[in-house]
């Protein structure tokens, strides 16, 4: 497979002070890292695309480590998600190649998190936006951490590119009060509860 060619990487963070309610003692952080890469399959159909997942692994690890560090380190991270926007000369299946490299990289960077890393993908042009889902890193049923982070770049993806995305949070939604499994009740057995 060809090398992964990165045109640029963007990291952004948000500090959430409140949403009408009282400010929390420690405002949760939300962040995303986006890498714009060349899509080696753009412009045609390739039957065997799976080997590119292996090529994407080092990029996934680098992105996960950089984002975790930006948000205060691996121990600070409570929620995560991943996604991809494929340029117009590609297909949605090319974005699916990010599932394993992005997900396993975050689990590794965070010390073996158990929950499945939620994901989304789509084909879109320059400036396309993507809502990347977020769940708790240890238990997918922790409702306070169900969230999404909207991402996109004004100049990407170009037709022959993909934007691969990782997102992380340092806590629940700022005023989470919709019930469900509490963080303090996580059993840590199966990534669900």
Automatic annotation (TrEMBL):
Q: Which Pfam families is this protein grouped with?
A: AA_synth
SUPFAM superfamilies in the record, alphabetically? BB2672-like
Record InterPro entries = AA_synth_put (IPR009569), BB2672 (IPR035936)
Q: What is this protein called?
A: Amino acid synthesis
């Amino acid at each position: 497979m060809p090398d992964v060619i990165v045109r640029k990487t963007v990291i952004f963070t948000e500090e959430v002070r409140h949403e009408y309610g009282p400010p929390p003692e420690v405002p949760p952080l939300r962040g995303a890292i986006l890498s714009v890469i060349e899509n080696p399959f753009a412009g045609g159909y390739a039957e065997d695309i799976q080997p590119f997942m292996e090529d994407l692994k080092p990029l996934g690890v680098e992105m996960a480590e950089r984002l975790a560090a930006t948000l205060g380190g691996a121990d600070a991270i409570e929620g995560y998600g991943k996604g991809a926007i494929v340029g117009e000369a590609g297909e949605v299946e090319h974005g699916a190649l990010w599932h394993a490299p992005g997900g396993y990289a975050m689990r590794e960077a965070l010390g073996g998190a158990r929950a499945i890393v939620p994901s989304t993908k789509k084909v879109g042009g320059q400036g396309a936006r993507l809502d990347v889902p977020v769940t708790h890193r240890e238990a997918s049923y922790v409702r306070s951490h169900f969230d999404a982070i909207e991402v996109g770049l004004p100049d990407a993806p170009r037709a022959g590119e993909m934007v691969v995305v990782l997102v992380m949070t340092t806590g629940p939604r700022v005023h989470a009060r919709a019930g469900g499994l509490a963080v303090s009740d996580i059993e840590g057995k199966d990534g669900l509860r």
